[in-house]
Amino acid sequence: MPTDINQRTVLVLGATGNQGGAVAHELLRRGRPVRALTRDPKSAKAQALAEAGAEVVAGDLDNPQSLDAALSGVYGVYSVQTFMGPEGVKGEERQGRAVADAAARAEVRHFVYGSVGGADRDSGVPHFESKGRIEQHIAELGLPATVLRPAFFINNFAFVGPQRAGDGLVLALGLKPETKLQMFAPEDIGLFAADAFENPDDYLGRQLEIASDELTGPQMAEVFEKVSGLPTTFRELPVEQVLQADEEMGLMFGWFNDEGFDADLPALRSRHPELTTLEAWARRNWTAPAAQ
């Protein structure tokens, strides 16, 4: 095994997804050896990782032997799971525990887990609570770990962003007008994961809540108006209405109003001034809906 910590291999889970892909690419950019775990090594994203220098391996989070093989000889692991699969939070939690168990068997030196802000605060939001239970399992195993807790993902605005209303746009969210929502761009998580692996003395044992912007609903509407050139207004949706449409979303927006994320944004920006704002994300990724 290389003696230089920055030349030791990191296994990245979800390497063809938003978070894992961002971590893999940032580690590669910094010259770190990466082993990328994916279900389909022949996919376009997997092939792009291989061309960028990653060792791409096939694996299944529900197969212990597969995990043991992927973890063989690695220094660190970036672990992230999704609750968007067919089994929801139950499947997410099972896989998160299985990865942690495999890392313990492999005696991994640094385990970085992609969680969510508020996972430690009894939010009542199912996909926050599931990540909190995975965090607890990691701690119970005694893994040398860093937990990254991102805020609301900015790319959610691709789905809950402004809608057309006459000659303008309306941003309708289950937020009180005065609620400040912290948000985070998934592509930025690679910055913090790579920092953690490069500086274990500073990051081992830490749980870090991370955000890249913080805005109220009316301020978000101003951003979308600036980017689109169309008059954009904010409209508060009653949380009860959101709950009826989607219980998970309703519980989450209720928590945003009552408690919310708690990242130290000035400190994070002082370390990484390039963190993605809502405006920067929108200019790169969002197009205003066309008039009907």
UniProtKB/TrEMBL annotation:
Record-annotated NmrA-like domain positions: 7-280
Top-level taxon of origin: Bacteria
Xref: SUPFAM superfamilies: NAD(P)-binding Rossmann-fold domains
The keyword NADP is annotated on this UniProt entry: yes
A Pfam family matched in the record: NmrA
CDD domains: NmrA_like_SDR_a
Keyword presence, NADP: yes
Keywords: NADP
Family: Belongs to the NmrA-type oxidoreductase family.
PANTHER family: NITROGEN METABOLITE REPRESSION PROTEIN NMRA FAMILY MEMBER, NMRA LIKE REDOX SENSOR 1-RELATED
Protein name per the record: NmrA family transcriptional regulator
